[in-house]
Amino acid sequence: MRSILSISLPAEKKVELEKRAKKAGKTVSAYVVYLADFEKNMISEDELVEIVKESEAAYMAGKTKVVSSLSELMAKNANKKNSLL
């Protein structure tokens, strides 16, 4: 079931949103839904800080690996949950 959401934007923001939607090949509504879904899947600043802290602790504990490429890292960690540690 669909519902209607009205928002108030400055004219220049509305024009920008319409241009970006057109460039993405979407209606404005579909583009706003896309942006909401995209934002939902992003990690928060707090999550990023926690990942960095965990990574620094792993580095200090000597638990890091030296690899020559991303593909080497991916191959070495294909079956592990967190491929960065």
Notes on the structure:
The chain is elongated and about 55 Å long. It starts with 10 loop residues before the first helix and ends in a 9-residue tail after the last helix. It has four helices and no strands. With 85 residues, the chain is an all-alpha fold. The model has no long low-confidence stretch (mean pLDDT 89). It folds into two domains: 11-40; 45-76, no CATH class.
Topology:
Elements: H1 11-23, H2 28-40, H3 45-60, H4 70-76
Helix pairs in contact: 1-2
Oligomerization status of the protein chains:
single chain
Counted up, domains total 2
Largest sheet composition: none
What structural class do you assign from the helix and strand content? mainly alpha
- Strands, total number: 0
Helix and strand succession? Answer: HHHH
- Stretches where pLDDT is under 50 for at least 5 consecutive residues are none
Mean of pLDDT: 89
Beta-strand percent range = under 5%
| Alpha-carbon distance between the two ends | 43 Å
Estimated radius of gyration: 21 Å
Shape: elongated
Q: How helix-rich are the residues, as a percent range?
A: 55-70%
Number of helices: 4
